[in-house]
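Changelog-adjacent note: as of this version, every example in the card shows the full chain rather than a window. The one below runs 631 residues end to end.
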Amino acid sequence: MAEKGGLIGGVLGGEEAEAADAETTAGLDPIAAALATSAMERGQPLDPRLASYLAQQEKLVGIQAEHLHEQSEVIHANLKLKRLNERMKLLFQGVAAAIGATVLAILGGVVFEAAHSHALVIEPFSVPPDLAQQGLTGQTIAHQFQDRLVQLEQRSGSARARASFEASWGKDAKVEIPETGVSLGEMERFLRERLGHDTHITGEVFHTGPILTLSVQAGEDEEARASGDPASLEGLIETAAEGVFARTQPYRYATWLGQTGRKSEAVAALRRLAATGSREDRVWAWAGLNNYSDSALEARRDLQQGLKIDPQFSHLWFDFAGVAQSLGDDEAALQAAAKSLRFLPRDRGRRIAELTSDWEAAINRSLIAFETADFEAEIAALQAMEDLTVPQHVSYLEGLEQWLPYRRAADWAALHDLARAQALLAGSPDDLSVARAAGTSAVTIDFPHAVMAADRGDWAEAARQLEPLAATTVPGEQPEQTATEILPALAVAYAHLGRLADARDLVQKTPTDCYTCLIARGEVESVARSWPAADRWFAAAEQRGPSLPRAQEASGESRLARGDLAGAAAAFNEAARRAPNWADPLKGLGDVATRHADWRRAAHAYDKALKITPAWLDLKRAREQAASHLR
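Full-length structure tokens:
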């Protein structure tokens, strides 16, 4: 008898498969098999019925073999289909997971942005029917109000990076008009209301008799209100917008006041912010007050207040370096510029606008190079500035295009290359009226001419260039700069002209905590051959600038003039150690060797100086003299 089940039944299952299997898997009858075997062993012929049965069994086996082959193909096809189904299932699961992850990421991003949003959301204003009939709907007035706020924001640029304003409007300072309807935007606004820190502005326009009033509320702040004639609605919007701007963007508002000429209001706003603002607003407020100070001393006090809050803020150190230099505190200026450079990478783009930080880095390098008498490095820093774009609304960077050629000319003059200095000044304005119109200080324009005249030994011309600056208040310069820059240089010129009384009178007007002024006092006394007094002033200057080279170089010149060759050599060596790229102390060492008739040492010192200042005529003559003794 045939057995139920079989391979196909095991794969497909079900009664129909079992029935089909029963028809094709019948086996050989064991009795028939035994009879056939016995007959074959005895050599007897098979019974015809047995032979017929065996023949039928043989045919059945063939049919079964063919059927099994077909079964095998069906099995393989079903296995392939099963594998394909599994792969499709995995693919669909992967796609679904990816879509789900994307949706979650989008929703997560929306939630994150909403939670960190500081946008300004302006809702349609409430307006009386008569205005609405004129086309001045609530949404129209809200748009006009928004436009005015955006204008105020755009005109209040400063060195401060947008990223530092996240506590107020956010880094993009976005404003928007809410719309109705269900949408992704509405969902985002809903999340911002629940999770974010947006400032919502609502407004109302109403009549009080013949007077039209605009009342605007920004968040929980006190309302800003403006009233006037109905025809002056635009002015009312402007007034109310300024009020909201002052409440929501206090630092930018103070900056805008200063840029529109409202200095006293700007100072008052910054002082309020310095007292009550956030930590970031307070340090920026103290930095901003520096721009409106009436004196460098006041500016230094304000900057020191900011540095107490944040002693690692590069912008405060940048401002402090400039103020210290104008006060004649060159050592403090040098140290402040170095600190500003050290902290600047951390603040760039995050607290200070990137373009402004590029300028501040170049100016810091220029100041450091000047204080260490590395004039080639200063020229390189100034040339780097020429490739930068001056950012708008950054007051202390305005007018720098006019300033750069004069500063570079002064450096070439300090390198004793008068031809290159003169070439830079050719075609540039050199009178004070043009300087004032261009926003460039007269000191900047006249100093290169005075330095060149002094290098030629033309002290009369140097005095002529400096006298107008000493006699008048220089526009754009703080009063301390006259005492720390102009008077010392003019006093030295007078001393060389034999006007010692005038020189001493002028130098007495300079502060005794000013590095350049103390050097000038020593130089005046040295020209007067009052050696003890000269030494006292040079020593005082050394105390004020322990890492600066100019006092040592001036002391070396004074000692050389009186024949103190050992003292001169010591002073020149120290100056050269502090300023290895300054040729003047190297020439001084050559002059000391010349006095000793040590021509080989003199030539060596002159050669080192000539590598720095190859155009220095006096140095060339000294080198030729030394060479003549070596032949």
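Structural remarks: The CA atoms of residues 345 and 357 lie 9 Å apart.
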